[in-house]
Protein: diguanylate cyclase
Amino acid sequence: MLTTSLLAITSLLSFMMLLIVGSLLRSRVAGVREWCLANVAVLISLPLFALRGVVPDFLSIPIANIALAGGLLSYYAGCARFLGQPTHWQVLGASLGVLAAAILFWFYGTDNPQVRVIIVSAYHTTMLLAIAQLIARHIPPRRHPYNYWLTASLATVFAIGHAVRGVVFGLTPAPGPELYAPTAFNAAMLTIGTIVMPAMTMGAVMMIHDAMLATAEEAANRDYLTGALSRKHFDLLARQEMARALARSLPLSIVVIDLDHFKQINDTHGHAGGDTVLREFVKLVRDVLREGDIFGRLGGEEFAVLLPGTDTPGAIRIAERLRTQASRHLVAGPFGVCHYTLSGGVATWHAHESLEALCMRADRALYAAKISGRNLVLSDVLSSDETASEAG
Structure:
């Protein structure tokens, strides 16, 4: 009765988790399909276990165990796909084939339930530890690690449970009726074995939720056309870097960039051509900038690059590199081939200066570059009078 009740409750939990994960199929998050299949496999196996003595033993023992192991295998594959790692389907399939052959041998060749329990426990222990290691080693960067560590920890705990079960059954002198007696130990092991998939699926749902939140945040923080940071997020990160520069007494510079004669590009190549130029320019900038530099689109054809730890000469070198690369950059498409240049204004931050004031000085340098003929980078340096007036 206890066994049947546990299996019925766990089947209901697995069904509920299947419905929850199934509702996320439209999210297109990698791994969701495999996690759904894992719960389907469990929903096949648990009723077969519960119907032992009612249905043929072939269904309630070999088939039920193979289906349960297949569910764990599918869960591993889902984690691998979700984390962008190879699934190794051939290895997984081969391991399940070996397990199936072993179960069938000790069911038909030598009916030894004790050995079957040891083999199945070893397989589940190995797969759960592999899942824990996979998740722990490949937590996505810039994500909250809680959901991933929780899921990896659950897998580790369940692996320990299966390992204990295998050891205890291995130390049992000889198989007999007491092997499956309704003892507290067997009840605990049955509980651990049956709640693995619902609990692990809960962890998967938490990881999916984290991924969807990260995607939404990324979309909100990025310019939809070019993929550069949005103006709002650029300003936020710039203020954070200003606080860090002040605390560590580090230089901080900004380069405001404007693509030259962009209206003419749109008039000549159409807005589709202009959009392509903007996207290709953003790719070029990303290839030139260093890790830690912050690049955003201020609007239209105007961009800004914040350069932490960089003084005026260093900022000018980076801006000149961008200008040189842009002047050599040919953008091709159905609209033809487009050549473009840029102008830039450089300003270096002064302690306690506002972001607006810093951008205004960079804009002033940019304006000077434009009226000086474009395809030029100039810097703005505060005169001693301006510095004195700001200090006062």
Summary: The chain has two domains: 2-221, 231-391. The radius of gyration is 31 Å. Residues 231-391 form a domain with the Alpha-Beta Plaits fold (CATH 3.30.70.270). The mean pLDDT is 87.
